[in-house]
Design a protein that fits this description.
The chain has 201 residues and is of the alpha+beta class. It has one domain: Aminopeptidase (3-Layer(aba) Sandwich). The chain has 6 helices and 8 strands; from the N terminus they run ββαααβββαβαββα. It is globular, with a radius of gyration of 16 Å.
Length: 201
């Protein structure tokens, strides 16, 4: 998480990403003030079950926030912290990032999400990821976006499919200093497909 962003790992963008409001979510860039609340979410084992099999410590959550700040500064986009509009509570994150964990597909942009267990099954991942894809293909002007759920995480794979993304192939995510190698599924979607789907929503 300590790497400085390399612009060559991401496709060029038309403009920087801002915050977005959906029907139920307030989505914006992370701030250091989010640390306490986010640490409570990330402490749940279920949030980081894939690929770590455990929750994050407060220190790991702070490292995550610092990495997100560098990502946004380096690439002009990143993951949003997700707050419910009804009560302003942080329930996780969703958004766009560079999948540096899978060098074989770079340069690329991935749509991804992680939510507190209490927010599962309520459609928040699909709602937030829809906003991320829309911004990716319009504001950022991306040609293609991928999603790389772990192969043994069918819930995330179903979200990718509900978004209209197509399974390309199974991939092997190389091991790093924090986890072993994992099997994952590469889903992809092009701008034309997204805009066509958007006409009928």
């Amino acid at each position: 998480m300590s790497c400085v962003p390399n612009p060559n790992l991401a496709p060029p963008i038309a403009g920087p990403l801002g915050g977005v409001t959906t029907a139920r979510l307030d989505l914006r860039r992370f701030q250091h003030a989010d640390l306490d609340e986010l640490a409570g979410v990330f402490a749940h084992r279920e949030v980081w079950q894939f690929p770590f099999g455990r929750g994050f410590s407060r220190g790991e959550t702070e490292t995550f926030l610092e990495a997100q700040a560098r990502h946004w500064d380096g690439y002009g986009f990143g993951l949003w912290v997700a707050r419910t509009r009804s009560n302003g509570q942080i329930i996780g994150y969703v958004g766009l990032s560079v999948p540096t964990f899978l060098p074989e597909i770079l340069p690329a942009v991935e749509v991804g999400w992680r939510f507190a267990p209490t927010a599962w099954g309520l459609g928040y991942a699909s709602e937030g990821a829809t906003a991320a894809l829309d911004q990716g293909f319009t504001t950022l002007g991306l040609v293609q976006v991928c999603s790389v759920p772990q192969a043994d995480n069918p819930a995330s794979a179903r979200v990718a499919e509900r978004l209209g993304m197509k399974l390309s192939r199974e991939v092997r995510v190389p091991a790093n200093e924090r986890r072993g190698a994992v099997r994952a599924l590469l889903y992809e979607m092009g701008r034309g497909e997204w805009l066509e789907r958007s006409e009928f929503r």
